Amino acid sequence: MVDGARSQRASTLGRLRGRARAGRASDEVDRYYAALADQVIEQRLAHDLSQRELADLCGTTQSAIARIERGERPPRIDTLLRIANALDCELQIKLRPRTTTHGEPT
């Protein structure tokens, strides 16, 4: 990739990430949506896809992808799975104990 294209891509990624975080409250749910938005943006750009192209691959609309990337809309699990498949990614969802006492969950 040419340095100019690399720089433009980094600039676009930074701008989109900033939008995803703009005006967001810092509660736990918003942090999850922002982190998810960052990952979708990063993977979409890594695959050189527009929002519309990703939407076409997922069977959804460009505006739905935009809302996910802005962290405005909590995506359904099936939508996340279609996005992950379109981006050749593995979707991981885990529940882990937050704390342990002597090796056992509390």
Tell me the layout of helices and strands.
Elements: H1 3-21, H2 28-46, H3 51-58, H4 62-69, H5 77-86, E1 100-101, E2 104-105
Antiparallel strand pairs: 1-2
Helix pairs in contact: 1-2, 3-4, 3-5
Could you please describe the fold and organization of this structure?
The protein has 106 residues and is mainly α. It has a domain of 66 residues: lambda repressor-like DNA-binding domains (434 Repressor (Amino-terminal Domain)). Helices cover 60% and strands 4% of the residues. It contains 5 helices and 2 strands; from the N terminus they run αααααββ. The chain has a two-stranded antiparallel ribbon with strand order 1-2. Helix 1 packs antiparallel against helix 2 and helix 3 packs across helix 4. It is globular and about 55 Å long. The mean pLDDT is 84.
